[in-house]
Specification:
signal, two-stranded antiparallel sheet, mainly alpha, SusD-like_N, 540 residues, membrane, 6 strands, cell outer membrane, RagB/SusD family nutrient uptake outer membrane protein
Length: 540
């Protein structure tokens, strides 16, 4: 939306220019980016790949290096450190979260760009005059585009509530958007995902590098749509339908929980849970049998165009140990990080039961040892926990984003894949759906599948509450899930952030109120939308 509102201003400049030199713009363009060219298989394929490129760009945004922190700090799982970048500040100091917020404005614009690009594909696939693609090809590419459209809209609704609905491509400026009802938005999301789950590719067995359509296994498959359907149904309160979708993914036989060492680190130090997050182990084709959707990245120093931007996840999540004299960035420590956030005390000291594999030294690093040969008297000795160093330089941190790139020892960009959906989360969605229906024994059984894998104590039906399910999500998915979005979806952000993580010594969570269960509609969108009222969310 933002792009098309802004285009209106540009169009005015062109009109004024053309009045002076009319023939200058008579040339008919044939740009590969215009909807006119998205009619044959090559155009459709390029456009579909572009959807992955757009989503990658959202995740790897580095213009504001604190971007990954926006979705974690000021919740129950993380706090900003002295190394904060800036964009994340209103997300723990909520009194500063206004309609001019940079993060809210950025994600709004990016998701609407993703929607419009998906709409271009859908419009051309549904156009009866387009005879360059057969019916099967049209269904396949339309299903892929509808998955991304539903994905973007489901995220927008979770973050902003009612938002404008555009189900056809915008090719001219539009300045009269209004917010659609949740019923209208949910109907489109469910329609798109139902179509996608029916028409997207199945997966081949094992570690095949291609799906049933012969395309790379990293492309959209029907189980991605089913998992997103489960999450969307939970947001809508349709818990029985959410349970059906999660069960269908689990019962498909296409996925299994990782319970044994595998892959590039199978013979080295580690455990089977942490093996999933080792660079070279994350993809289905690399042996990750839990992988439902992995957004694959390549090292741009090896594969030209292998990444869209410079992903900051490692720098945000890892400890800034490089700042301790006697410490050098290295592979065993996950490369160079700068700790823009720190796991909350609740996560570090109150979340995991004794023996839980997800809290092992291979998943959450708590001890550091001097490794710089230039300091022979210190080499191999433990780095003491002292003073402010414990808050970011040698703070305990998740290893999920760690990876050392010898081509980038400074550690500016991260090159790991993004594990968007995996089977561990499917069991958590299933447990949530069961618990919300009062099926507490079934919910405990679903949770215990994960706890058995993690060597954690079994739980009972009496323990099954939404809070417990959200606790278990943190144990299983810390560093993976968008925690803010999960707590906004479940309506628990205010309670859990206040109760579990409001007293950080450096950047405490303050000003959090019920209005923050939704983000502000960007002021720029409201102002550019001159021909209709685009209402603001309450309290902003």
């Amino acid at each position: 939306m933002k792009n098309y509102s802004a285009i209106l201003l540009f169009a005015g400049v062109l009109t004024a220019f053309a009045s002076c030199k009319k023939s200058y713009l008579d040339e008919k363009p044939y740009s590969s980016y215009t909807p006119l060219t998205v009619t044959d298989s090559l155009g459709m394929e390029a456009s579909a790949i572009g959807l992955y490129n757009l989503e990658t760009g959202i995740l790897t945004y580095s213009g504001a290096q604190g971007w990954p922190s926006v979705w974690q700090v000021g919740t129950d799982v993380a706090n900003a450190t002295a190394q904060q970048q800036g964009i994340e500040v209103p997300y723990y100091n909520y009194s500063l979260l206004t309609s001019q917020d940079g993060a809210a404005n950025y994600i709004w614009g990016k998701y609407y760009a993703l929607i419009n690009n998906a709409n271009i594909i859908i419009d051309n696939a549904e156009n009866p005059s387009n005879t360059k693609l057969g019916p099967v090809g049209k269904k396949q590419v339309e299903a892929e585009a509808k998955f991304f459209r539903a994905y973007a809209y489901n995220n927008l609704v979770t973050l902003f509530g009612k938002v404008p609905l555009t189900d056809h491509a915008l090719t001219v400026p539009k300045t009269n958007f209004t917010r659609a009802s949740l019923d209208e938005l949910n109907a489109l999301i469910l329609s798109d995902l139902t179509y996608a789950s029916t028409n997207l590719s199945d997966l081949n067995a094992g570690t095949s590098k291609t799906n049933a359509q012969g395309k790379p296994v990293g492309r959209a498959n029907k189980y991605m749509a089913m998992q997103l359907l489960a999450e969307a149904y939970l947001r809508m309160g349709k818990n029985d339908l959410a349970e059906q979708q999660a069960q269908a993914v689990i019962n498909s036989g296409k996925f299994s929980l990782i319970k044994a060492r595998y892959g590039v680190r199978a013979g080295g130090a580690g455990d089977y849970y942490s093996d999933m997050f080792v660079y070279g182990n994350e993809r289905r084709a690399q042996g990750n049998s839990e992988a439902i959707w992995v957004l694959e990245q390549e090292n741009p120093s090896v594969v030209v165009g292998g990444n869209v931007d410079n992903a900051q996840q490692r720098r945000v999540w890892g400890a800034a140990y490089y700042g301790v004299p006697g410490m050098l960035p290295c592979d065993s420590l996950g490369g160079r990080s700068i700790a823009r956030l720190r796991l909350s005390n609740w996560v570090l000291y109150g979340l995991y039961p004794q023996g839980d594999l997800r809290n092992s030294q291979y998943s959450i690093k708590r001890r550091y040892y001097y490794n710089d040969p230039a300091f022979p008297a210190l080499l191999g000795k433990p780095v003491p926990f002292a003073g402010a160093d414990t808050l970011f330089r040698i703070c305990p941190s998740t290893t999920k984003w760690g990876a050392f790139d010898p081509n980038d020892t400074f550690g500016y960009a991260m090159i790991k894949d993004f594990m968007m959906m995996r089977l561990g989360e499917t069991y958590l969605l299933l447990a949530e759906a069961q618990m919300k229906q009062g099926k507490t024994a079934d919910a405990a059984t679903s949770i215990n599948v994960l706890r058995t894998r993690a060597n954690a104590p079994q739980v009972t039906a009496a323990q099954m509450t939404l809070d417990f399910v959200l606790d278990e999500r943190a144990r299983e998915l810390i560093g993976e899930e968008n925690r803010r979005q999960t707590l906004m979806r479940t309506g628990t952000l205010v309670d859990r952030a206040t109760r579990l993580n409001s007293n950080d010594a450096v950047h405490p969570t303050t000003g959090l109120a019920a209005k923050n269960l939704l983000l502000p509609i960007p002021l720029s969108e409201i102002q550019l939308n001159k021909d209709a009222v685009l209402e603001q969310n309450p309290g902003y």
